[in-house]
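Q: My labmate handed me this sequence with no annotations at all. I'd like to see what the chain might look like in three dimensions before we decide whether it's worth expressing. Could you predict it?
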Amino acid sequence: MIPKYLDVPVFYGDNELSLVAATEKLDGKQYVIAKHLGEYHLGDRHGRVTTAPFVSSILTDSIRKMLRKSPDGTVIYGQLCGPGVSKLTDYGLSHPKFFVFDISINGVYLGWSDLRRTCRAYSVSTAPLLYLGFLSELRVDRLTSGPTMLASASEIKGITVRLGAVIRPTVDGRTDNGTRYQVVNEVFSEL
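A: Here is what I predict for the chain of 191 residues:
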């Protein structure tokens, strides 16, 4: 009932004219929230049903409202970060916070613009956007260096540098034979 992330073929395209979005790779734990038959199911990144110790930080009022308005088959993928969860940093947070990095509806992933618009409509946080543009103009070294986008260094306990980035297309893709794919590529900083 709870799909693994990514439970679809991963395809690494090289079309330099592709539009991509790069978000900050966050330190924390991945969780999946699936809506099935009007009920919400929380799982870990492997698709196993779980009772997370910080359930109230994941299933916030904003997330519940977004799910109520969403059709069955909606799956929200996110990263829980902050004190008691993140190993390397607390990101300046006083309590754990859930950051959405992907949403699929009946197996179709939202493009970055739709994902961000949906999350903003319900005041749900997303992983910080580092870059939006053409793959050919992407400078990976700029994505993997510098401070985290979540807080200033003076507010953070732990490391203050960016862990890396997750690069994805701005739209869900399909191959010539109709097979669905999601291009996801993680790059890491040199800590």
